[in-house]
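Researcher: Please predict.
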Amino acid sequence: MRFSPVHWSNKTRGLSLIEIVVYIAILSLLSVVVVGILLSLSGVYAELVITKRMNTSAAAALDRMAREVRSAMSVDTASSTLGASPGLLVLSGEDA
C-alpha cells in the first residue's frame, strides 16, 4: 500500500477573514442580548424581593394592630388626636 501525500483542495481550506468577522459579530450580538436579558431579570428579581419584604412587613403590622385593638377595653378620647394628620389613637386596656 502506498500513501499519497495530502493534497489540500479548495473545499478543505480554513475560514476566510470575512467569515471569521461575521461569526465574531454574530457572537458579540448574541452575547450583548444575553447579558441584557440577564441584567433585566436581575432587576426584576430585586424588585420582587423588595415587594415581598414590604408585604410581609405590612402583614405583620396589621396583625399587631388587630391584636392590640381586639385586646383594648376602650378608646381614651382625651389623649387621642383623631382630627389631625397623622392621628393618634390611644387605647385603654388591661396593661394600662
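Model: DSSP finds one helix and two strands in the chain.
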